[in-house]
């Protein structure tokens, strides 16, 4: 319902990126709750807890130590428990190959990390708004592809 | 073997509602999709049971008047988008205020307040979603899809598709096709 908030999780090994990310969400008009993890292992451990609350949108950095974003994506897509999560790739890379490959593997959103904070706010706001539309209007998640 | 399944949400939801309401022995009349009139006063405990049963199916009774009106706006717009090929060429603002009996300004403000998006954006999103489902589930060409959705040209459809999703219709088509191949392997 309308008074709900969007639960957002980010896995990113860069401390500054994590900080900007959390700050950007604090300034959005849609209500959100944000949790961050610093690598893929930490993230998957948290998600795999049986009673864990699953995010509405999961943001994955591609280049992380121990377990990359792509490895997380593939694991997540193989597990039916996670089927309702929207997955956003959040990366410094904008190579067409990375973009198409992550979409094919099941990502819904591909974001090239912007350099300016205001751009980041705009992008995250767009992502949450579009995701909200999919969520509240029962649109087909299979067709949810967004590149920013 | 793999098959793709298309759902008729209206039929599906109406069917569930009908079954459950009969189970609870509540007499009702279906007004529009998503609007039901109870033909007798229903005791509170029965209503509670009704809510609980529907919740299992992800169906919820809407209480708030504003939310109801917004839902009507959405239903009207979706209907407009899905039936665009039937030759009606009215402006959405006129169509909407005619159907719902409120000024467009009022409806538009209310809509933005409740949904975090504008009516215009909602229409674009719905049209593009419809285009996506036609791209993935039918053999229609982009030209035919553009015509069906009343775009002035394929270029217009492609531009709006790209602006909304960040990718072109052709890339979209390729990604979905690859995904299906990957899944069936």
From TrEMBL, chain A:
UniProt KW Amino-acid biosynthesis keyword: no
GO annotation, biological process: phosphorelay signal transduction system
Domain Response regulatory, chain residue ranges per copy: 7-128
Residues that bear 4-aspartylphosphate: 61
Alphabetically ordered keywords of this record: Phosphoprotein
Protein name: Response regulator receiver domain-containing protein
PROSITE patterns registered for this protein in UniProt: RESPONSE_REGULATORY (PS50110)
Organism: Gelidibacter sediminis
UniProtKB/TrEMBL annotation, chain B:
Keywords carried by this UniProt record: DNA-binding, Transcription, Transcription regulation
Coiled coil stretches, renumbered: none
Pfam families according to UniProt: HTH_18
Molecular-function GO terms, alphabetical: DNA-binding transcription factor activity; sequence-specific DNA binding
Domain HTH araC/xylS-type: start-end pairs: 96-175
InterPro entries reported in the protein's UniProt record: Homeodomain-like_sf, HTH_AraC, HTH_AraC-typ_CS
Gene3D superfamilies cross-referenced by the UniProt entry: Homeodomain-like
UniProt KW Ubl conjugation keyword: no
SUPFAM superfamilies given in the database record: Homeodomain-like
Family matches, as PANTHER family: ARAC-FAMILY TRANSCRIPTIONAL REGULATOR, HTH-TYPE TRANSCRIPTIONAL REGULATOR EXSA
Stated name of the protein: AraC family transcriptional regulator
